[in-house]
């Protein structure tokens, strides 16, 4: 079961007291695993039910019970033991003896409630298949940002691993990262496999260097002399006003 509940201490206790009584009567001696998506994403307001739904769909698809973040000391006012409610602290495989079924219960701050029961299709002998995606034929640039350098490094590595081990619609991911994410203090980028070709990578690196030069110029920062190596020679020539940005990109390409 996953909950997206109210924010007050009193409301939270009442919510779990009601859940404890309900599940204790229904499931008897069997333990019920509970969790919340709020520690992951905060209060979803109008999308609170949807975020829980996404979490549970991923749990079913990956046959994994996700842990609950930031859960250290159980509230003594919530009768976990009496109702046989368990909060997972580590990811674990779905018990072989248990049906792959979850209930999602959301109480929005506006008073809107949502409740849904999800069953994994394979539990009903329905074959679960994936639709193959067309190979990505154009170069893609993935951009990342984070509040801390270590977080940025970890996020980049996680995305790289996810792309390599899953059938990802790369174009959709590029759009989400570039247009639907906040730009935080620490930023980086990486290229898709198609960008390993020199005709793409060299102009890209040159454009990046030209962008840095333009940014410094906007801050009235100008060098007294410049020196470059390899593709850096193109950026150095641009910095010295020996070539235009367009000429620099053409030189890098050819």
UniProtKB/TrEMBL annotation:
Per the database record, which ranges form the Ketosynthase family 3 (KS3) domain? 1-120
Q: Tell me the organism.
A: Lepidopterella palustris CBS 459.81
Entry keyword RNA-binding: no
Q: Which PANTHER family match?
A: FATTY ACID SYNTHASE, SI:DKEY-61P9.11
| One GO MF term | fatty acid synthase activity
Under what name is this protein listed? Thiolase-like protein
Q: Name one Pfam family in it.
A: Acyl_transf_1
Q: Supply the alphabetized keyword list.
A: Phosphopantetheine, Phosphoprotein
An example GO biological process term is: fatty acid biosynthetic process
Q: Which domain of life is it from?
A: Eukaryota
